[in-house]
# Entry
Amino acid sequence: MEGNQSWVAEFILLGFQLSEDMELLLFVIFILFYAFNLLANGMILGLISLDPRLHTPMYYFLSHLAITDVAYASSHLSNMLENLMVSYLAFASVECLTLVVMSYDRFVAICHPLQYTVIMNWRVCTFLAIACWVCGFFLAIVQVSLFLRLPFCGPQKVNHFFCEIRSVLKVTCGETWINDIFLLADGVFILIAPISLVLVSYLRILWAILKIQSKEGRKKAFSTCSSHLCVVGFYFGIVLMVYMIPDDGNREEPQKILFLFYTFFNPLLNPLIYSLRNAQVKAAFHRVLQKRMTV
# Structure
């Protein structure tokens, strides 16, 4: 049997079953979104690096989030299966962990303001950022290592627009129970645990805000975390719909549409939310612009 099997060396991504005109329209739209993603996240990174007032833990983690968003969107442009799968798994994991770290930063800033500079010192911030990247890539490498041990003898067609691991596992001719167990474990570590930690942090933050006497103080405290809360809501909301709802075989097309938001729109929303809803970022933009105009 093994000697007569023809092993698959490459896959055909089906993408969206659309007309040529619609595919051309989507191509233009996605290229524009990708360009805006690079521009918006690049602007955030530039402002943080140029304005000393943004050299704080909050914006330090925001710069890592911007780098992750650019890298995550760019990883889907690769044509090599191994690199693509490692990239999107790693950067998705890093983004989840970074959002958790940012929620912890907001928790310390609001619930323990007098100890903020001691707790969130630069050594701690650097350690947390490195831990996010190391954990993200470690989990991705484990998943891809388990994936590459599987035999593929057909069919070659993968019903997705990139090599999403669950879609590719459907076309293997080997046992995938180990992969399924590790995917479930990753889901708990990357999704369930982070969401739980974020919810706990924001419940503590909400309780601390409600105890503030002045209306202006409550408004200022809430404004420091509202942008992050919006990003968390968009990101984890889409991820939960994609990965936590059981796959009954009839959700492939809706899932691909959700993946478009997850892949292209979400990385663009992050810098827009932080720039439009954050007074410090807008002030930094005006300071940098005025400085450049006077040079």
Remarks:
- Residues 1-6, 78-83 have pLDDT under 50 and may be disordered.
- The radius of gyration is 21 Å.
- The first helix runs from residue 20 to 50.
- The longest strand covers residues 12-13.
